[in-house]
Amino acid sequence: MNFTPAERVEVPATYIWPMVEGFGNLVRVRRRQDIGVAEIAQKYPD
């Protein structure tokens, strides 16, 4: 991890997904993202 615990903060940022890519792609990417975030949280708990 490149950031110290003090540097790892959650921000209320959002991303508007262009739906031209399709809802199925959005769901697939979000699931993969959720898995990655959970993995980082497990490896680097606060």
Give the SSE map.
Elements: H1 23-43
Comma- or semicolon-separated keywords:
mainly alpha, 46 residues
What does this structure look like?
With 46 residues, the protein is mainly alpha-helical. It has a domain at 14-43. Helices cover 46% and strands 0% of the residues. The protein is built from one helix and no strands. The two termini are 13 Å apart. The mean pLDDT is 85.
Whole-number mean pLDDT: 85
Poorly predicted ranges: none
Distance between the termini: 13 Å
Helix share bin: 40-55%
The number of helical runs is 1
Overall geometric form = elongated
Q: Strand share of the residues? A: under 5%
Q: How many whole angstroms does the radius of gyration measure?
A: 14 Å
Q: How does the major sheet shape up?
A: none
Helical/strand content category: mainly alpha
Helix/strand order, N-terminal first? H
Q: Say how many strands there are.
A: 0
Please summarize what this structure is.
This protein has 46 residues and is mostly helical. Helix content is 46%, strand content 0%.
